[in-house]
Amino acid sequence: MDASVTPALLYLDDVSVTFDGFRALNSLSLVIEHAEMRAIIGPNGAGKTTMMDVITGKTRPDTGEVMFDGHHDLTRIDEAGIAELGIGRKFQTPTVFDMLTVEDNILLALKSDRRPLASLLEKLTSARKERVDELLERVRLKDHRHRKAGNLSHGQKQWLEIGMLLAQEPKLLLVDEPAAGMTDQETADTADLLREIAQTRSVVVVEHDMVFVRDLGVKVTCLHEGSVLAEGPLDAVSSNERVIEVYLGR
Amino acid sequence: MLTVKLIDRYGAVFIAVLAAAAVIVPFCNLAIEPGSAFHIPDYLLPLIGKYLCFALLAISIDLIWGYCGILSLGHGAFFALGGYAMGMYLMRQIGPRGVYGHPILPDFMVFLNFQDLPWFWLGFDSFLFAMVMVLLVPGVLAFVFGWFAFRSRVTGVYLSIITQAMTFALMLAFFRNDMGFGGNNGLTDFKDILGFSVQAGETRAVLFALSAAALGLGYLLCRYVVTSKLGKVLVAVRDAESRTRFLGYRVENYKLAVFVLSAMLAGLAGALYVPQVGIINPSEFAPANSIEAVIWVAVGGRGTLVGAALGALVVNVGKSWFTGAIPEFWLFALGALFVVVTLFLPKGILGTLQDYLGHPKAAKPAPEPDGAAVAHPAE
Amino acid sequence: MSLLSFRAFHHLTRALGRSVRFCALAGLVVLALAPSVHAEPVDDALAAFAADGFDDTQKGIDILVSSGHDSAEAILAALSAGKLMVRNDDKALFIEGKAGAFTDARTGASASVDAAKLKVVRLNNRLRRSVQAALGAVTLQAPSPARRIAAARAVQRSRDPAALPAVDAALARETDNGARAALQTARAAIIVAAKDAPEAERIAAVELIAAEANPDAAALLRSVQADAPQALRTAAEEGIAGIERSLAFWNAMQNVTYGISLGSVLLLAAIGLAITFGVMGVINMAHGEMVMIGAYTTYVVQDLIRDHAPQLFGSSLFFAIPLAFLVSGAVGVAIERGVIRFLYGRPLETLLATWGISLILQQAVRTIFGPSNREVGTPDWMSGAFQLGGLSLTYNRVAIVIFAMLVFAALLLVLKKTTLGLQVRAVTQNRRMASSMGIRTDFVDAMTFGLGSGVAGIAGVALSQIDNVSPNLGQGYIIDSFMVVVFGGVGNLWGTLVGALTLGVANKFLEPYAGAVLGKIILLVAIILFIQKRPRGLFALKGRAVEA
């Protein structure tokens, strides 16, 4: 980390993305520190998902700088490369491999050599088996390990996806609406899990559910029309006049 | 299932049947008197051998389509290229015994006023070299094509269409006389292979047994691939390609690897096909051939490997019967087969059978909607 | 113009002084040589031919030309072809027709003669040229301007100075502009070749010829002798260069027109696909068969018209167009309702099922109409060709280009301006929303697919005019059509237009260098590479919607 441009883990500066004349991101700047958890809120179309797309390499920004861990320019690396650097992503709608079993889903996510030949020859060591067991335990899917992922309930899929995230052992987790479609109990459990994860890793949570955000009790960034509208503790942000204006309209 | 057995219930039956056929069919042809009910007539041996080659082609298609979601409508091209490589060896073996008696040039080259052997015919007098080419030529074409296509993330029907265009372009090219592959007539009138006459019963028996062995080994190779972690990645790519990327897998490399392997298997199938049918010509490149091979896989059940081989056998036996008995109805039957299988039997024969009998202890990937390759009305 | 007529006059006098073979002078000589009881000069000419000496024959030719007699052309043509025979005993002349039939040279009546007693009126090289020029001179007076132009061109090619007076005479009374221009060129051709003509005049003639941009003119200028005056040679060289530039230009233009013609064929074949594949996202491998059904509909319509109302044959295509639309459209709706609707969201399965349908349709047509090509007639108003500048265009190709553009415009209007178009766009953009707004999405799907198929049927009517109508007709277009749609950019009709024309023109420009087959291969490979570079085609839609 000697050649670091910035000490922060994730550093977005002046990032803009345009789709057919529509500015999805407008000079967005954002900094996430090591082992920080950040909640991102904002109305529909504020650019939350596009921001995630830019960080994970799905979308290339028109302008701006996206640096990870000080010296990795994410705008020049493809999705797989970014994932290997240590950025994991959970999608808004849970995306797991429906045709594979729950444990196979975890196994695929487990940190390993990602090249085809290595995959072909990879042996299932007892260490890896233990790791799978441990993760299944943690996301409470041990009893469902032989089921096809496609047959899980919505909430279970959300947890499986978080389990896959953990299996990747990323430095940064991007979590898009983890509480969507969950019961209150599940939501609370998810918040606990995320807080626990955030003790060692950085987590960015995009969420609409204000109760959940309050539950997390972390710094909040409010996006609007592709740029940061307000940033700070939830109470400060939610009392910000411009935020109220955006959410309630006039 | 973290691990799956290399040979499952269906695989065991398949291998056993193949091994038995490799011994019994030639035996019934050579050793049993023609009058006996167990005698297999001379015409049937290469015919069944042909089916075995088609089955290997079907397995190669199933590997990429059934497990990785790549629908190639150009696999006939790899099959034909393997066939041409073998055909070139067989042509060189004719030597001065051609109609024109030229010591080196094959008849069609003498006929077309070639002065020298074109450079790409050099080396094909060696069997070993030809066998390397059987695998290398389809492999290299698949690599170059796949390298461009997968890197640019051409997927779904787009990929299908350009593979079809690829085989179509090759067909046009091989029809040209100046290409040096015999034009319209292709390569034929083979005399012998490794010094044995291709017409001889013993040679045919060996070729048959080799085809069965190639099919069996091809199956085991594919099975090894799909039961490894690589196979799980392929299924992951098939069902959620971009999710797989976000896990850190370079999807294009996986697709490329399995596409090249599949093309080589198809080439091998073509190489075994040619000495048994005695001819290879540009019509093997016809897009209709490739798409017909795809339906074998669909009929048998994609994502099952054994089913693909079964489908190739069933459809081709049907074809042989129809074209003998009521030829004008064959296209109706084939067309209906395409429609019926996609509408009513999406899992194919074996997939449906598995649903009834319950799954063997294996994570059987079953056909799924092909994802949103073409942005159909977003639901 | 005044300069030209002055030159013409000047030259006429010179030519008269030089040549004794033409006009009244020649007639007088012959009259003196061969006194005859017959009043008509044609008889004198025949008598001269009968003598069968080279000089006599020359005289006969001259007399015949100046006589302007109706049978002069036939006699000269026979002489030129070695079919003018003289009977040994009575010196009567006959013309040998086909299969040993003879006609009397004087009267044109058929005659039965003993071929053994006949001998051919002989010619030498000098006479042969002379006959050619004379033929030209005679035809220069023909009543139809087209024949006069042809005659002028013949004179131009012969470059015989002897024809000059006849050309000048013809020019003097010529009223038709086209014939006049041809005569002037012919005249210039003679002067360029005439060594003894004044240099300035020859240079002027060179310039006149150079203005005619065709290979004949270039050949003519190339024939300017190396010993010709420097100024004349320079003028000729400049003229040749100019002609070559002009030829290259017209050649390129001709390629462009061929390309546009091919492009419009591709457009017709692909435009229905642009709707079913491009707009709906349904991959229909039986699209080519919709085209084929349209072509067979045309065949059936023509067959019925021939049997029941032959006078309507000229307008048969106008009956065929709506019918083909309905027939192919109905088949399309049936396919959509019967098969495709169960496969929405499963493009690869759709591809396979529709391929199966294409096999069934091909075999059905083969069973009904037989495997061989069916004859589809071209109405009179669509046959023939015309010249436009240096371009040669056939009416049927022009008709197809115009027709393709009309279909394209109509389709654009349907999609942009009609309720169906609005609903189609609504359904393709957001099916659920459209459905909840009361749009019958099923109905819209069926109608859209029917529209695309119907347009393919219309394309079949046009293609029946230029291609073989056989069960395999559609197969020939399916890959090209997909290439056009994908190349142009899926979901964009304008992309399809540009894609079709680009591919058409590129194909025709490649053909002269690579040959038809290799050209096509090169283009296929180019498109394959292009799709990999730009997977969404030329006019790609951008944005997140595409990813969905």
From TrEMBL, chain A:
Identify the InterPro entries for this entry: AAA+_ATPase, ABC_AA/LPS_Transport, ABC_transporter-like_ATP-bd, ABC_transptr_urea_ATP-bd_UrtD, BCA_ABC_TP_C, P-loop_NTPase
> Has the keyword NAD been applied to this entry?
no
Where in the numbering of this chain does the ABC transporter domain appear?
A: 10-250
> Which regions span the lipid bilayer?
none
Q: Which Gene Ontology cellular-component terms appear in the entry? A: plasma membrane
Give the GO molecular function terms: ATP binding; ATP hydrolysis activity
Record keywords, A-Z? ATP-binding, Nucleotide-binding, Transport
Q: Which Pfam families match?
A: ABC_tran, BCA_ABC_TP_C
Q: Which PANTHER family would you find in this protein's record?
A: CONSERVED COMPONENT OF ABC TRANSPORTER FOR NATURAL AMINO ACIDS-RELATED, HIGH-AFFINITY BRANCHED-CHAIN AMINO ACID TRANSPORT ATP-BINDING PROTEIN
Per its record, how is this protein called by name?
A: ABC transporter ATP-binding protein
Organism in which the protein naturally occurs? Agaricicola taiwanensis
Automatic annotation (TrEMBL), chain B:
**Topology within the bilayer:** Multi-pass membrane protein
Alphabetized Pfam families for the sequence? BPD_transp_2
Q: Which residues cross the membrane?
A: 12-32, 44-67, 73-91, 127-150, 157-175, 205-226, 253-274, 294-317, 329-350
The cellular location(s) given in this protein's UniProt record come to: Cell membrane
Is Transmembrane helix set as a keyword in this record? yes
Which GO terms label this protein's molecular function in UniProt?
Answer: branched-chain amino acid transmembrane transporter activity
| Record-linked CDD domains | TM_PBP1_LivM_like
Q: What is its main location?
A: membrane
Q: Which GO terms describe its cellular component?
A: plasma membrane
This protein is called what? Urea ABC transporter permease subunit UrtC
Q: Which organism is it from?
A: Agaricicola taiwanensis
TrEMBL record, chain C:
Q: What transmembrane ranges does the database entry give?
A: 258-283, 312-335, 398-415, 482-506, 512-531
Judging by the UniProt lineage, the source's domain of life is: Bacteria
Tell me, what is one Gene Ontology molecular-function annotation carried by this entry?
transmembrane transporter activity
Which positions make up the signal peptide?
Answer: 1-39
Read off the Pfam families from this record.
BPD_transp_2
Read off the InterPro entries from this record: ABC_transp_permease, ABC_UrtB_bac, BCAA_transport_permease
Which cell locations does it reside in? Answer: Cell membrane
What is the membrane topology noted in the UniProt record heading this document?
Multi-pass membrane protein
Q: Name one GO biological process term.
A: amino acid transport
Q: Which UniProt keywords apply?
A: Amino-acid transport, Cell membrane, Membrane, Signal, Transmembrane, Transmembrane helix, Transport
Q: CDD domains, from UniProt?
A: TM_PBP1_LivH_like
User: Which cellular components does GO assign to this protein?
Assistant: plasma membrane
- What does the sequence similarity comment in the record state about its family? Belongs to the binding-protein-dependent transport system permease family. LivHM subfamily.
What PANTHER family does UniProt report for this protein, alphabetically? ABC TRANSPORTER PERMEASE PROTEIN, BRANCHED-CHAIN AMINO ACID TRANSPORT SYSTEM PERMEASE PROTEIN LIVH
UniProt protein name: Branched-chain amino acid ABC transporter permease
